[in-house]
Design goal:
Length: 494
């Protein structure tokens, strides 16, 4: 599949020399995602000629220690093997700086350290700040970046912020106000790693250049859209965060609603980054707000009980380490939502996500209306256009093919896919975009705010225990109520 065909001035720019400041350099995300992503970009020659990377953390380490940790991380997590002949050159870009985000002196010293390194490398003060830190630190960091003058550059400056972006509508607004006191909206890059997934980025380039698929995208033919993000893993060691967040904050407010927007955007022609953002905002504005009736009928909350996943017996959520007793937290969420615009009016979108489900799968399924004459034949099922996002990356069409020996029709899948091993990972794409200054696949504040607005009544209802908490056995396809949600409208989850 071709790369996304977006007209973006930023994409055409060559990458400028810069400093990349990583807050949270010894953290899990840095090791699993950020260092491997930077290394693979390096292997592809997608880095500035000269780059200073400064890793910040409280742990007393030397730059050599950090480089050693990075090397280990690359061996463990890089999608491509580490190449000994260029590894040192890559690691040489990194320096470690002992830093306490709550201490003013730390910023003064950091500024000096950064400037010295810029002078040593002869690079301008283009600075990219990457915040992979606990949300409670963001406020101080952003204010101190400003007060210390670190973010007052002659060159460009950008801020990449990891999720969670707030814990509800109010806190998200507060956080955003803090960021916008110091940075302009076009300097803020809110990461949603689902937007970096190749298949999500490819939706547009899949449909627009293919008249045959455009014809399928005819809304009079579509009966419903289903978006699934299921996982086999449980809460793991993250209970202290997850037990407060639940699936609704962890997956729905951000990833699932972004998938809804990306699916619903219409790409009749090439769109610029700003046009895509505008369209996504319009989609969110057209989604019906959650009503009392929705809470009763169209919102499903679930929690896993003990079960078997991939042949292994696993605990129920309530028994997991760190989960508070009798927790009502949601580990599963499903909903029906309606987009009231000219394209999607009357076509329901069903979304669901859950931990400890039967399979790891992220997919978008467009289901087509059935031909009432044809369904009289035995075995006929609806046609589907299936976009597999993760772990498989493929597009397939489900069609009915006659089996003459049994005199029945059988569903057959016509698939087209590309070798996923060769595809850059989400973080590679997003870091690259951040470095060249292309914000197309980052979440704009409008989208984030509108998503929180949609989710807020659900958060309130969950907090007040006004929505039933359905259970489902680990390793299953989720609570029965979620099947009922689609069945009521004459469908099944695909
Ligand atoms: C993260 C969530 O944002 O996404 C995790 O915090 C979840 O709970 C993960 O497991 C899923 O991402 P992916 O890329 O594996 O689908």
């Amino acid at each position: 599949m071709k790369p996304l065909n977006v007209e973006s001035a930023a994409r055409k720019k060559s990458m400028e020399n810069m400093t990349f400041v990583l807050f949270g350099a010894t953290g899990d995300l840095a090791k699993r995602k950020i260092y491997p992503a930077l290394y693979n970009l390096y292997l592809d020659g997608k880095m500035p000629q000269s780059m200073s990377v400064i890793g910040l953390g409280r742990t007393p380490l030397s730059s050599e220690d950090l480089q050693g940790q990075i090397e280990d991380a690359l061996h463990q997590f890089s999608r491509r093997d580490v190449q000994n002949d260029n590894l040192q050159d890559f690691l040489d870009k990194f320096r470690y700086f002992i830093f306490d985000a709550m201490k003013e002196e730390s910023y003064v010293e950091l500024r000096k350290f950064m400037e010295e390194r810029e002078a040593e490398l002869g690079i301008p003060d283009n600075r990219l700040f990457y915040l992979s830190v606990a949300p409670r630190l963001i406020n101080s960091i952003v204010n101190e970046l400003d007060a210390s003058g670190i973010s007052r550059t002659n060159g460009w400056r950008r801020l990449i912020v990891e999720k969670p972006f707030g814990t509800d509508l109010e806190s998200a607004r507060e956080l955003n106000a803090t960021l916008q006191e110091v940075f302009e909206e076009d300097e803020i890059y809110r990461i949603d790693h689902y937007l970096g997934k190749p298949m999500v980025q490819n939706i547009e380039s899949l449909i627009r250049p293919n008249p045959i698929l455009q014809a399928l995208w005819d809304h009079s033919q579509i009966s419903n859209v289903q978006i699934t993000a299921s996982e086999t893993v449980g809460v793991g060691s993250r209970a202290s965060y997850y037990d407060k967040a639940g699936a609704i904050r962890d997956m729905v407010q951000n990833h699932l609603l972004q998938l809804v927007m990306m699916t619903a955007v219409h790409h009749e022609q090439k769109l610029s980054s700003t046009q895509i953002q505008k369209k996504k905002r319009e989609i969110m504005e057209s989604i019906s707000p959650v009503s009392e009736q929705d809470l009763e009928n169209n919102i499903i909350r679930g929690q896993y009980t003990p079960g078997v996943v991939s042949g292994e017996s696993v605990k129920g959520y309530q028994e997991e380490d760190g989960v508070k007793e009798e927790s009502h937290n949601d580990t599963f969420f499903a909903a029906k939502l309606c987009i009231n615009n000219e394209h999607w009016n009357g076509i329901p979108f069903y979304i669901r996500t859950g931990k400890r489900m039967n399979e790891k799968a992220t997919r978008i399924v467009i289901e087509f209306k059935e031909d009432s004459e044809a369904t009289k034949d035995v075995g006929i099922v609806s046609n589907l256009l299936i976009i597999e996002i993760n772990p498989n990356e493929s597009v397939s069409l489900r069609v009915n093919v006659a089996n003459h020996s049994s005199d029945k029709f059988e569903p057959t899948y016509i698939g087209f896919s590309k070798n996923a091993d060769q595809q850059p990972e989400a973080y590679e794409r997003l870091l690259y975009d951040g470095m060249i200054g292309d914000s197309t696949f980052f979440a704009h504040w409008h989208e984030v705010e509108l998503s929180w607005e949609w989710v807020q009544p659900i958060l309130d209802a969950f907090a007040g225990n006004e929505v039933p908490l359905h259970t489902y056995a680990a390793g299953s396809t989720g609570p029965e109520a979620s099947h009922e949600l689609v069945r009521r409208d004459g469908f099944n989850w695909n």
